[in-house]
Amino acid sequence: MASKLKQLTSKACQVSEFVAKHGNAYYKQVMEQNKQYVQDPPTIEKCNLLAKQLFYTRLASIPGRTEAFWKELEQVKSLWKNRQELKVEDAGIAALFGLECFAWFCAGEIAGRGFTITGYYV
């Protein structure tokens, strides 16, 4: 266990040295590549305006998303009505989708408990 800790410490030191040497250059490169997204001047008022624009734009997209949801629900209902004609592949895909949803739920529960399996902090 002590050797693993020593390796981890050594690796962490190497990473911090790398970031110290190359972090500034990486920052400048990223900012140069994405300068079209930077607002000038970078004021609090501009940030508040952008936050409001994002919020209300997302709010305006709700009717379109609800319409897509209802269309999808109608497709599922029609599949359920004609389930005798359902292919094994389609049933397998639906089962895998359900399993994936359940797995994401479990992962979310574990993350919500602080990444512990039992729910108790160690």
TrEMBL record:
- Origin: domain of life: Eukaryota
This protein's name: Uncharacterized protein
